[in-house]
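Q: What structure does this chain adopt?
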Amino acid sequence: MFKSERSGDLNGFLDAGSRLTGELEFEDTFRVDGAFTGKIRSPGDLVVGAEGSVEGEIHAGRVFVSGTVRGEIRAEKRLEISERGRVYADVITPALVIEEGAFLEGRCAMERAVTQGTVAAEEAQGKSAGEVGRSGNKPTLVRAPTGRATVP
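A:
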């Protein structure tokens, strides 16, 4: 279903029927099919399986949800919610994919990745939010988020 861009190394697995509370850090890929409560931090991929649930704060490179997530999600590269996925969270990500039948409730902010110049530099020059991302009359090149979003 979800394919990792990284080396594919699975750093850990929380199996169905298991419960864990605390803080989790990992490098490549971690899969949750049990119940996790707390904070998750990783530059890698977090997979929440169909029977999995996470409650708390997630900050990861990519997040794939087929189970249930409650809290906050910051996916630096991408968030994907499968048709069975349920997300009750505030989300920040540059790319959001929501399959038909999936559920998302919460605030969503899509960051944009600037390939020429930076928004921060333009803001420092005193441009207003409506002007950020533009250089004179020429728009700054901005990578658009990929994927599709479907509302059930």
